[in-house]
């Protein structure tokens, strides 16, 4: 039951969803923790972060379009946030706001967990906010050959140049490479049926990584499975980054089974 001692954690997003809210509250209840998690949006990010500090809100998840705007509003950037100049998690410790990027941490962990070959070329489609976390994670994992495929003639080259990679506006020929989608193609909504890469690219790929979190099985992941290509899903990314946030907010380590169950609960309609 909520009371005066209940600790509040929140999310700030342009388009709030229930995924994080359900994930965190599921675990708070299971573990008997006196916390509650609530999703918000705002038109005044400076005032919102001021409220986090002033009201003693313990944790704040940050989504687009606020991931860079909050940087001057926090007190300390950790290595994960500095790696990509982007924040998705703020922890408030007695008024001191420390910023992290658990998207970057989750992608880094998945690259290692799935044993992706550092010598393999990578073709990454997209140049938005999440693309920066993914490209930086591949760079820091030792991948020397990565191509950013993006139509945006400003954001695409800027992203590639920032991390020492190449940019192309049009799809190169199919190859034995790791395909990575960081666009909304395949996401629930108007692009739900879109395939992020052509079938020939999927057939030739060494592995396929789709960061789209909803649905858990995108058209790209489904096609890769049918082609018997190894896959990494956006559901894995969002579960790992949320688990890391949970541990930062609470100081409580959770098991892989708890992460799996909380993630499944968060996707219920």
Question: What's the structural blueprint in terms of helices and strands?
Answer:
Layout: E1 7-12, H1 19-31, E2 35-40, H2 45-55, E3 59-62, E4 76-77, H3 79-82, E5 89-93, E6 96-100, H4 102-113, E7 122-125, H5 129-140, E8 146-149, H6 155-162, E9 166-168, E10 178-181, H7 199-204, E11 207-210, H8 219-226, E12 231-232, H9 234-250, H10 256-266
Parallel strand pairs: 1-2, 1-3, 4-6, 7-8, 7-10, 8-9, 10-11, 11-12
Antiparallel strand pairs: 3-5, 5-6
Helix pairs in contact: 1-10, 4-5, 4-9, 9-10
* CATH class annotation of the largest domain: Alpha Beta
Adjacency order of strands in the biggest sheet:
2-1-3-5-6-4
Strand count, sense and barrel status of the largest sheet are: 6 strands, mixed
The CATH H-level superfamily of the largest domain is Leucine Dehydrogenase, chain A, domain 1
Can you tell me the CATH topology of the largest domain?
Rossmann fold
CATH architecture of the largest domain: 3-Layer(aba) Sandwich
- What is the 3D form? globular
> What Rg is obtained from the alpha carbons, in whole angstroms?
19 Å
Uncertain segments of ≥5 residues (pLDDT<50)?
A: none
Report the β-strand fraction as a percent range.
15-25%
Helix count, DSSP H or I runs of 4 or more residues: 10
Distance between the termini: 24 Å
Helix content: 25-40%
Strand/helix succession: EHEHEEHEEHEHEHEEHEHEHH
Instruction: Give the domain tally.
Output: 2
- Helices and strands: which structural class? alpha/beta
Mean pLDDT: 95
Number of strands: 12
């Amino acid at each position: 039951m909520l009371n005066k001692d209940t600790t509040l954690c929140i999310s700030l997003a342009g388009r709030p969803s229930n995924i994080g809210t359900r994930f965190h509250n599921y675990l708070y209840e299971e573990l008997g923790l006196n916390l509650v998690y609530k999703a918000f949006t705002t038109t005044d990010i400076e005032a919102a972060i001021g409220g986090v500090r002033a009201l003693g809100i313990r944790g704040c998840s940050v989504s687009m379009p606020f991931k860079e705007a909050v940087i001057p509003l926090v007190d300390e950037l950790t290595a994960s946030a500095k790696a990509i100049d982007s924040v998705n998690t703020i922890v408030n410790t007695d008024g001191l706001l420390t910023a992290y990027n658990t998207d970057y941490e989750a992608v880094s962990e998945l690259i290692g967990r799935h044993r992706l070959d550092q010598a393999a070329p990578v073709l990454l489609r997209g140049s938005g906010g999440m693309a920066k976390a993914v490209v930086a994670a591949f760079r820091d994992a030792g991948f020397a050959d990565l191509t950013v495929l993006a139509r945006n003639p400003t954001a695409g080259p800027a992203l590639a140049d920032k991390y020492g990679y190449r940019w192309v506006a049009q799809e190169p020929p199919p190859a034995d490479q790791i395909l990575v989608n960081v666009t909304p193609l395949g996401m629930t909504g108007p692009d739900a049926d879109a395939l992020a890469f052509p079938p020939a690219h999927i057939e030739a790929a060494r592995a396929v990584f789709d960061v789209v979190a909803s649905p858990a099985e995108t058209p790209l992941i489904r096609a890769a499975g049918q082609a018997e290509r190894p896959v990494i899903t956006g559901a894995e990314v969002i579960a790992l980054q949320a688990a890391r946030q949970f541990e930062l907010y609470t100081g409580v380590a959770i098991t892989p089974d708890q992460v799996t169950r909380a993630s499944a609960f968060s996707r219920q309609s």
